[in-house]
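Appendix B, record 7
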Amino acid sequence: MRQEPIPVVVSFPLTEGTRATIEGASPLVRILDYPTERIAPGAFRPPPTEEQAAILAQAEVLFGSHLDPIAVHDAATNLKWFQVLTAGLDELIEQGILERDFTITTMSGVGAVPIAEYCMAAMVMLEKDLHEAMRDQMEHRWNFHFAGQLRGKTCGIVGLGAIGRELAKRARAFEMRVIATRHSAQPGDTDADVDELLAASELPRLLAESDYVNLCVPLTRATDGMIGADEIALMKPEASIVNIARATVVDTDALLEALRTGRIAGAALDVHDPEPLPEDSPFWDMPNVIVTPHRSGSIHGYFERAAEFFAENLQRYVAGEPLLNVVGRERGY
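Structure tokens (predicted):
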């Protein structure tokens, strides 16, 4: 059994509660605070100062996000495990994090329920034209018209992971038909959480049959740009896209054109390229688009839940047990 302390560097501010949660994982845990400032989404923190580099050099475990993996690798020479604060690696992949020799784990699943609720809310808003009703309210305009219902509609889920499964439960509660793709599925496979499970190669069928296409995949080399003009052309004219994955999973120009021309009915976009979404982006003013600032998984208590997950993984680390959410180098998540 291990006896020596475990230096854990944390790159975001801790409350008394989250600090106690992490320290409670094991008496061997020794937290080292990494002084940082808040940065824009999608950006990396600047290269470490001399003080920060000295802290990283002590790290056996690192918990945080938005750290340049090259700088981390160069400074944190004793690092064995990097627990990122997010569900996906995103820009870290482009910076070569998968080529580094430390173990990487993610927060996949920690935000699954709130993100699934966002998808469900987006489908309700689009189906009931609530986004248009809100505009009418702001303009004091009484604009009566009929709307649709989700019952009997097909909810397509691209990526049956933790988020996809939570969404499937909620869509079924609305009596929707649920079909989903999963990267590891083979044609003919089944899954109790959905009405039909499709292989990744059967994406065209999902696009053609779905009234709502919910993009729930991680950003990898395989999913980057997976929805382009040809894929959108397969969708029903009355169908809509809900994107909580990453913006570049969809070809932005193709999506804009489809929304402008009525090729598809609408979209709810929580992810954008770049972020923040520029003020002159056409998406802001499109009546058939719901824009939110990458907040589908941002809930009160997120950092507390993240600390609890990290503490559980720390207990596994101390005991020499397999960690949760270890990133596969080949698949990228």
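Remarks on this record: The chain is about 30% helix and 15% strand. The radius of gyration is 22 Å.
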